[in-house]
Give the backbone structure.
Amino acid sequence: SKYKLAEVDNDIVTFKTELVLPTGRVSDVDKLVELPTGDGQYDLGVGIIWDHTLPANFTWTLYTLGTIQLPDQLRRRIPTESDGGLSPDIENVERDSGDQYLAGTSIQYGSSKGGVYANLGYVYQYMQAARFKGHLYARERYDWLENQYPSQMLTSMIGQIGYSSIESYQSKEFPIPLQANLGFGHPLSGRNA
């Protein structure tokens, strides 16, 4: 959800909150190939967005967001060697996934509330390393498991074009509120991502 904190002249400051529920299917350690649709944990995020209206229907945006991934429990294979080879030892471990942080900027032409719009932006993302706690094996084996989930960093360029009928719908000129987007992202640099 978003809450407008202030609007002065050409500037709007917005506070953003998000809650992610543990929906979907988490990965199964007994399946060699699988496409999980969720990660099994709750996430809480907060952020600040600053929009500055420029001449000629352009808007410049700066934003930052921090997401806390709350601890959970899941089944994992506990490595028997430091190289992380496939282990027969499985345990229901406590996981503290690394928290996530991002900051970015973008320039947009048009309005995402009405008509055609386009934007181009840059984003920096960082995620802390995951931590695992178990009770069946030596601590070093859980350290080896943590080595498989190091911290991650990614910088990318993003672009988007879209169409929105929201303003037309609100003025009774269009029968339904509709928004369609086409986006593209290109990584510039990264570590463990």
The chain is about 5% helix and 55% strand. The mean pLDDT is 92. The helical segments are 139-147, 166-170. The longest helix spans residues 139-147.
